[in-house]
Amino acid sequence: MKKTTYIKDGKNAPFVESEAESAYIVQPTALAGREDRRQIEDIIAEAQGLARAINLEVAETRTVPSQKIHAGAFFGKGAREAIAARVEELEPAIVIVNTTLSPVQQRNLEKEWNAKVIDRTGLILEIFGARAQTKEGRLQVDLAALEYQRSRLVRSWTHLERQRGGAGFMGGPGERQIEIDRRLIVQKIAKLKKELEEVRRTRDLGRKSRERVPFPVVALVGYTNAGKSTLFNRLTGAGVFAEDLPFATLDPTMRKIALPNHQDVILSDTVGFIADLPTHLVASFRATLEQVVYAEIIVHVIDVSRHDWQAQKQDVIDIMKDLGVEYETDDRIVEVLNKIDLLPENDLTTLEAKHNPSIVAISATSGSGIESLLKTIAEIASRAHQVYNLNIRPEDGKALAWLYAHGDVLERKDSEKKISVKVAMEDTNYNKFIENFGGNKKKA
């Protein structure tokens, strides 16, 4: 069966025709978890979306009540036999169990069902492997996948990689994991961690550079497919890949934009969050996610057109807390209720009635509410970065160089008697300038 899929190619995402292989999804109901947050139908729909994200055609989805986890195979004997019979009929390329399986459980299920089996963590890793474009992204995916596979006796499949790329180190069904030199895997992990540490140091240098030239960083965060990249494109005009797919954006993208108060900020689009995000990924992508921790402004994009948007919001809050962001008390956070154009009129009225100054309702697609969002971002950004008018003597090159190194020079006018500079900088840097150089100054 043919199916059209998107493959990211630089800034563009052209259509590519490819053969879609089939997947059979098994959803444990008692452990789908978070019944207090999300309905089982929503969990299943998300799993199906994850499968489609790597061009798998979902042949069928089966829910299996699992009140008790069986150590060797997760499911009870009756459920396993029923699934085995259906797998034999459908002959899917892959069986996806939408929960976390131990290496032993995965191996035993593969033997019993005579099919390739992958759990939720492995599926997300495959998506990340297909999406990563930059060297940093590839390093992070490789590290996460190696950590995941280190204790496993089975490997992910490769027959999909011929059509969609993926992690090249993953062996195929014909290889025996028992032959892998685990010591070599440990060495590879150590090497990748060292390379990622270099990335982290580079990010630290970049952050210190931004402190010298203070463009506040605005980080877009949110559940996967909430509309972050669409909003990013709306605000910047960039051609970032923005499609109705989970994890459409993996590698961080940054652009400078001007706010209504003429202040420049750096807008950063980050990888989407998801419920039960594997710990391997959180750890491996920490270098990227640290952008959120150090950002001056955090814009949380929420898809309010979904009936389970509050559950998705809480999942994002949980992950941000793991990163050290205290969501409830952090005054850097702006909540953006996106896709209001898809809401019924009554629901939109209810949202507006509960309006909070730190919450902005928008449609990234139509542009509704964007001006209010930019105004809110500008108000928060102006707390730390003020604009000053300074007059400097032409011979005082040292003072001028200091301003360029520690502030954002917005405007400069030179004359014989003075150099008039309009500069944006943090209050602390302004006070240091006055202490070191004095001079004629006033707030713009």
Characterization of the model:
The protein has 444 residues and is of the alpha/beta class. The protein has three domains: 2-180, Rossmann fold (3-Layer(aba) Sandwich); 214-382, P-loop containing nucleotide triphosphate hydrolases (Rossmann fold), CATH 3.40.50; 385-443, Alpha-Beta Plaits. It is built from 15 helices and 16 strands. β10, α11 (309-322) and β11 form a beta-alpha-beta unit. α1 (40-53) packs parallel to α4 (120-131) and α14 packs antiparallel against α15 (427-437). The longest helix is centred in the middle third of the chain and has 31 residues, at 182-212. It is elongated, with a radius of gyration of 25 Å. The protein starts with a strand and ends with a strand.
Shape: elongated
The number of helices is: 15
- Kindly state the number of beta strands: 16
- What count of domains describes the coordinates? 3
The CATH topology label of the largest domain is Rossmann fold
On the 0 to 100 scale, the average pLDDT is: 78
* Low-pLDDT windows of residues: 1-17, 153-178
CATH superfamily of the largest domain: GTPase HflX, N-terminal domain
Rg, alpha carbons: 25 Å
Query: Main β-sheet: number of strands, strand sense, barrel status?
Result: 6 strands, mixed
Structural class determined from secondary elements? alpha/beta
Give the strand order, joined by hyphens, for the main sheet.
8-9-7-10-11-12
Helix content, binned percent: 40-55%
Distance between the termini: 64 Å
- CATH architecture designation of the largest domain: 3-Layer(aba) Sandwich
State the CATH class of the largest domain: Alpha Beta
Strand content: 15-25%
